[in-house]
Amino acid sequence: MEEDTHVLDDIREEMSHLPLSELMTMQNKIGLKAFRKIKYGLVGKATTKNNFKRENKNRPSELSARRPVPKNTVCPKTKVTRDPRFDDLSGEFDEKIFNHTYSFLSDVKKKEKLKLEKIIKKTTDKQKKSELKQLHNRMEQQELAAKRKEKQQQLEKEWKQKEREQVMAGKKPFFLKKAQKRALLDAEYQKELTESGKMQKYLTRKSKKIAAKEKRKQEWSTKDL
After folding, report:
1. What sign has the CA pseudo-torsion 205, 210, 211, 215?
2. What number of CA atoms fall less than 13 Å from residue 12's CA on the CB side?
């Protein structure tokens, strides 16, 4: 084995002094694979290993720019963004469950409203005070709308219960239309105002609102002329 190695070393030594034309002739005769095995001692493409060393320990290490790509390359998973409002995985929206789960928000809003009222009282700047009052009015409108919706759901529930009992008694089922639901809610709202003594105030505010609307209509019609 050692003799073969010495022989190959001698051949390589001789080959190193041969001109390129003779090397090409030799390669064509014995074949590329055998030629590389004799000349480089390996099968396949000749490779030279460079040992990068630091001349000084304080200098950064010198590395080859030709780094091979690792075989077991793991591609990072792409992050998929989803909007829960429009994603089927979130299921269908149930308002009852939502209101029950986030019922604490009504208490938070009430506290924020009280805090805002205190800030309005302390604010002296007219512009700032006007903006805060507008915000307060919006909060009140949202609160009234939520109460009105809650009342409507309660009335519909009571209506369905009565209707269910009447159907069980043999009556033909009747379903409320939107206009009928609204009329039912208005009647209940007026009943509450009468019982609380706020009906007159409500009628006065409503008449003022209608008058202001009519005034705006007249102004626009005058402009058109």
Report:
1. positive
2. 14
